[in-house]
User: What shape does this take?
Amino acid sequence: MSALPPQSPWPPSAGGPMADLPPSRAHPGRATNGTLFTDTAVRTDPAPPAAPASAPTADAPPKRAPVRDRYFDLLRAVALFRVVFYHLMGWSWLPVVFPSMGVMFALAGNLMARSLKRPATQVIRSRMRRLLPPLWLLGAIGVTGMVLQGWGPNSEGHPGWWWLHLTYWIVPLSDPPYADGLPGFHHILGEDWGAELAGPLWYIRAYLWYVLLSPFILKALRALPWSTILSPIALAAALEFGWVHIPSVRIDSAVTDFSTFGACWILGMAHQEGILKRLPRYVVPSLVPFVAALGLWYALTHGFKAGHDLDDIPFAQSLWSFATVLLLLHISPSWSEWPRPLRRFDRLITLLNSRAVTIYLWHNLCILIAATLWDRLWGFDALGEHYAWLLNSSWPVLVLVWMLIATCIVSFGWMEDVAAKRSPQVWPDGHQNKPAHKHR
Amino acid sequence: MASRTRRQGAAHGAPDGSPRRRLPMRLLLPMLLLVALVAMLMLRGYVHSEILADHRVQPEASTDKVPEKIIDGGPVIDTRSGRTTSLNVPDHRMVLTFDDGPDPTWTPKVLDVLKKHHAHAVFFVTGTMTSRYPGLVRRMVAEGHEVGLHTFNHPDLSYQSKKRIDWELSQSQLALAGAAGIRSSIFRPPYSSFADAMDNKSWPVTRYIGTKGYITVVNNTDSEDWRKPGVREIVRNATPKGGKGAIVLMHDSGGDRHQTVQALDTFLPRMQKQGYEFDNLTEALDAPSASTPVTGAELWKGKAWIFLVGASDGITGAMVVGLSVIGSLVIGRFVLMLVLSGAHARRVRRKDFSWGPPVTEPVTVLVPAYNEAKCIENTVRSLMASEHPVEVIVIDDGSGDGTARIVEAMGLPNVRVVRQLNAGKPAALNRGLANASHDIIVMMDGDTVFEPATVRELVQPFGDPRVGAVAGNAKVGNRDTLIGAWQHIEYVMGFNLDRRMYNLLRCMPTIPGAVGAFRRSALERVGGMSDDTLAEDTDITMAMHRDGWRVVYAEKARAWTEAPESVQQLWSQRYRWSYGTMQAIWKHRRAIVEKGPSGRFGRVGLPLVSLFMVLAPLLAPLIDIFLLYGVVFGPTEKTILAWLGVLMLQAVCAAYAFTLDRERLTPLISMPLQQILYRQLMYVVLLQSWITALTGGRLRWQKLRRSGQVATPGGVPTQRRRVAHEERESIR
Assistant: This one.
């Protein structure tokens, strides 16, 4: 009865991608304006396709069509799928095969740099407006549930702190708080669901900080490109080797995450700024394997194993993600249309892209519920006796997880549209409004 | 038979990408060879305990689960089929046991001493040592000693799974069967001592081994000879109290055992005087022998194993020799190149240096072109800017893309176009030669661009009447990509180190097709270009040497050429170069026994070229095999340091070459990866050339294909044909 399927090993900083939320082709009629310029969609709603490219700056890459780069869409979808897969399976080599977090931050940084051609405050405001409402929805449901199970101002020290920290659910400048060690819920939701729920939120916090800092980063990037790109790695090294010590846990985790994935975010910006294109093409493939090897070597010599993977070795993570992202951006083929073999995944990838935040925010809860439900099958003795291998397997749970995620997309996904000031959609896979019609 | 099927296959595959069809074969043979070598290396590492060795030793554990009678009992523990008994050796009998052997140095000495004193003993041998020194085990058995198992590679069994224990036992029996044709039923666990040292960790192992039919033999008198405490101490430790029977632990392996041998020489006669008999175990216990002969399949499996281990030792030995040969060749070559290229650069850059009177007479530039529509205009225009008076002859080798018309449409006064049916580059060059008006002939490719000074610099060496041919300095134009940067490094080193060295040694093997100049009289003396080989440029250069002409390098005659951009193109280019070079060496092999300049080239140049271009690269993969082996199985750090050392040496040479050529050093950052990916590609190409040369199949096939092309009037030339033509030029 006890054999819980290996579910979400939660290294606190494991994570999810998300979501620069390119609105995608959710509204085929006017999607072109949205494209990667999600914010411009607000004011210039039925804008002509060329609108986003109207203000090319001097160092913008010469080839910049105002169409979605399907390559980036593919990367985002793969990253998102990998995150869910990894949080279910817990295989420590998965983040090595595809470092989703670095990829997601790079894609987001790329879009941010693109948006920053407009005034910074406006960009930041629209980014936050896009990001936060889905979080508030999660918080409204999640925090209510926690409070119903007895979480309250007196749960941790002074009530003042509780109330103060609660504001992080509104603006996650630091990790939103959650109730520790909650009991399960009617054999549907497993124990300690609060921690599972809040687990992925570090990404939102890190993302918010990157957005806030991006105007400054962009200035630095233009002045000293490579020093800026490498500075987060230097910071990661400083933290790793103890040259810098940060006493506060909350600040420490913020700085650590910033240093771990900062280089990826900045690489995304640099790609947009055309800085990477200025290098001779042989430079990146010549150096990347050695940076990656250094990262891997560091991980292997510092206790890399199941349950202690790249996420727990931030310095190794920063090197490995940097190298991978650099290579992926170097390859960057800029697809304005899908290559033939990928064409059939168009709707799936579009859906994953346009509901990235929702999927990311809710997936961990889905995993917990799916695993709890699957565990109930042990209650049937015949099953437990003859099909123990099946009950122990995580693959059926994976199917269950995606079914639950589909439910979340339908139930909570609309918030992303509301945040983007679009009319809410049920199933935005780019093919008109056929509700809840799955293509997978 | 083989060649016929091959030809048919090629005929079928020709229209649509036959290169792809051949891919498996040219990869398969080298891969098989590589896998076999690696397997042999692994086998050797395995029996030398470099692989799968486990040196952990279990700390002492509690003993509450070990039966009292075992702890208080004798050193011979019988747990077979549910028994739990132990035996002691009867009084005045002594069983000497030697662990961890056989050892090639000490075991024979131990055996000699035992023989001298007519004593029998028991050797608990490890499977690895048995596999490596089967002869010693045979001698033990022949001289009446008993052989027991001591696992295959000496792990602490309490850490191992049952599967691993089974495997340790069966693998040891296999080695024993192969070495001496017997099985043994006595076993001693590694790191064991007395029966009272049995604990909760080791007892289950002992019981398990009993179920496999073995008697476990520990000891009750430890000589502690492994501590090397001195002969007297060993003798004292090994002497049992009061005439009791004893099983004495000694070692014939694992270090310097001369104390053990000396101790035995005192100990044996002394104890024999006290009335002790030295028996092997079953003699001492009056039990039936512990060893049974092995026959049939088991015996042959054992023999095969022993043979394989012997072969792996031999092959690994040969590989190590090969590695040191290649290592010294590589390093020697680099040192030689550094010294000679430095000397060459100093000489030709001296202020007062000149080849002779300045050459100002007009020259003929031959541009053989096959479907060069894209590049030919740039090529011809670059020649028009020449500071030296030139007559340009473009020989259109049956192009289908209007190359000739493009040149004619340019309407340049001193440019002539000669057309011919597609007949290959050597024929095109010969036709151009026949049409040339001047006495100095410059040859270039249709996709190469000269600088204004190139022709002038290229022909200045003809001021020296002994010079028959001049090699220019070809540079890679498309060096932005990784594969381009790698070729750039290769070219800069090839021209600034190799060619300078060969210049001074007077055995330059190749005038690059992209930029070279010939004295017409010299070309005519050797009969012009020939299509005997796939590398007509190497062929003609060797012919020049044999005719007594000097072949020199003109560093300032720079030509910009386009290097292959795909692995496929690069592959076919290099295959042609390396196979063509082998053909040319073979064609000119008679030079070795000839007199005069031909003999000089044959005895100095040909061996050098063969060594560096054909033989050394064949051994070079050894570097990678040992690198990989060292990284995986250790010593990892030393291996990587050694590799970095060689890399540094190469980087120094490359940096020197780049400095000589006044090139930016940044492309050198792609060198480490080049060492990991690019070089290996070149080996496989070379290996493929060797296979072709040894089987002889491909050459015929190529000629067949070529005539087929010519016979197709108006047929669209295939990509393959184009590659075959165009990529032979360029540089070596």
